[in-house]
Design goal:
- This protein is mainly α.
- The protein has a domain of 66 residues.
- The protein is built from 19 helices and no strands.
- The longest helix is centred in the middle third of the chain and has 17 residues.
- It is globular and about 65 Å long.
- It starts with 5 loop residues before the first helix and ends in an 8-residue tail after the last helix.
- The N terminus is likely disordered.
């Protein structure tokens, strides 16, 4: 399950956020566990917690209980157990907020997080498409685009076409904005990207420049190409990239080892199945430690949990005598063993 957001860790022992009903707090971990096992009666209790959200009184900062309820319901969506009532409960709060999609960020993010796993209710889709086709250059349009792009697997062909028809306008209006790039990446998850999308993203990444992931002295993280490269990696998982774009994406990965969601790039670079011999050949050809690291991650994505291939790899590991190659092969084996649930393109 996802971890509790850092912003709320400090509130665990803060009486301002504590409920007066101690039994309810003791009950919450049980609700989380039962909900993840698909118990629908416990889901209703989590929905009741969401109904306590009062933007007028608490602003955009949800209390810990509400945050845990949202996170748990995302897990239920991943398992295919989320009810439409949960979505409509959150949507009702969003719609009542005059700020629309630029309102409560936790609730907007939640809709986006469940979108890949659940068909959205008609009234939610109607609202999002209305926002998508707003005339003014407002950020609501981009937020709607990103959510709908994440929901593409559950949309009709007609609905997909409505999104694609809006992309050229979005590209011209929000050129260089990360949220637009993210949306293109999510369209790629559904395999409906165009060559223009690939060209746009490829022109935005600067793989030979190393960007810092840490804030500067003023506490500001400088503008970077992280989301753009991740989006290109998502597209690569379902669309074959031109050779030169593939090579630039590989260089991007070598210089962005620790950025969030970099595994999506590894999966994109692993778009073609490779034999064990080809993997070992690439490891041997890697000229730098960073390049070898990326090759290891690509190999892990290619091999997955294919037991026959893992056994072949173990054989090569046992036979290898060169220290660096043996370490690389051992790393692949260990990482495969440690692999948890693969959440796909999202």
């Amino acid at each position: 399950m996802q971890t509790i957001p850092e912003k709320h860790i400090k509130h665990v022992y803060d009486n301002r956020w504590a409920t007066n009903d101690e039994e309810r707090w003791c009950e919450l971990p049980k609700l989380v566990a039962l909900s993840r096992l698909g118990h629908f009666d416990t889901q209703q209790k989590l929905i009741d917690i969401l109904k306590t959200i009062n933007v007028a009184e608490q602003g955009d900062l949800l209390n810990l209980e509400q945050e845990i309820a949202l996170l748990t319901l995302v897990e239920m969506a991943r398992q295919g157990n989320l009810s439409l009532q949960a979505i409509l409960t959150v949507f009702k709060i969003i719609k009542a907020d005059d700020r629309g999609l630029e309102g409560n960020p936790s609730l907007i993010e939640w809709i986006g997080n469940i979108a890949p796993y659940k068909e959205l209710p008609d009234e939610v889709k109607k609202f999002l498409f209305k926002e998508l086709y707003r005339s003014p250059e407002e950020f609501d349009t981009l937020i709607a685009f990103k959510i709908l792009a994440r929901n593409t697997m559950h949309l009709s062909d007609n609905e997909k076409q409505r999104i694609l028809l809006r992309v050229p306008w979005l590209r011209n209006t929000f050129n260089g904005v990360h949220t637009f790039a993210e949306g293109l990446g999510y369209l790629g998850c559904a395999g409906i990207s165009t060559p223009n999308d690939i060209t746009y993203l490829d022109e935005k990444i600067k793989p030979d420049i190393t960007f810092s992931t840490e804030p500067n002295k003023l506490g500001v993280i400088q503008a970077n190409d992280f989301e753009t490269g991740i989006a290109l990696g998502r597209i690569a998982q379902n669309s074959k990239l031109p050779k030169e774009v593939y090579e630039r994406l590989f260089l991007f990965a070598t210089n962005r080892l620790n950025i969030p969601n970099i595994e999506q790039v590894y999966k994109g670079l692993a778009q073609e199945k490779a034999s064990i011999k080809a993997i070992i050949k690439r490891l041997a050809a890697a000229s730098t430690t960073k390049a070898r690291h990326v090759e290891i991650k690509i190999a892990i994505a290619q091999i997955g949990r294919q037991q026959v291939v893992v056994e072949q790899l173990r054989h090569y590991f046992n036979q290898e005598t060169e220290p660096e190659k043996k370490i690389a092969l051992g790393t692949i084996l260990l990482d495969i063993e440690k692999q948890t649930e693969d959440r796909g393109c999202y």
